[in-house]
User: What shape does this take?
Amino acid sequence: MSNRPHIKHVSDKSTTVKSMIILALLYFIFGLVSWVNTILIPYFELTLQLSRFESYLVTFAFYIAYLVMVLPSSYLLNRIGYKRGMMYGLWCMALGALLFVPAAYWRMYQVFLLGLFLLGVLAMFFHIGTQMVTLATSIQYAGIWPLSIKSLGRHTNLGFALLVMALSCSAVMPIVYNAFYEMKIVSATSFEAMKYAYWIFIPCFAYIVWFAVWGYRIQVLEKGQSVMSPLNC
Assistant: This one.
């Protein structure tokens, strides 16, 4: 008798279509949550009388969740499963969105930041759960991430968790950008200072190009030696 586990397939096409529609709608919500924080920056800066540095804490509060919560969330998903994990993530999103009401009423910026952090936790849950290879809107998920975790074997889950944690750079780079802007604004107009500050992103994109063309071929041995993979040369 075969020891292979019995796999139950869904034969009802309507059930499959409904599931895909729900997943597509959830993905739209997650995408909206991920990008709305950038839109909020000028409005927070105007209505709450924030400095430029304080306004960039909006993106910091959202994306820092990728750094501090990815390992606990990975452990939770392994224990309770992706379906229940997404349910908890949606409750977390609802709580974060609900916090916007008292924050707006009393104009409490710290509560806004807490709500954004909780929204970031939901987005991070989605990144971990789907691994974004087949439902991607960005080339980094569909192209660069599979190259990064290729041939990791039993370390694939850990490698993917580190990739999700690396998204926390989006929390730091706006603050670095603002620092360059503040340095240049002393001797230039605001528009010229903004153009100058954008140069800090050039090394980031240059590294992505290098990795996509050549860097992904490098494999690291147990002794720490780096070699070129003969399959990819």
Summary: The mean pLDDT is 79. The longest helix spans residues 13-47.
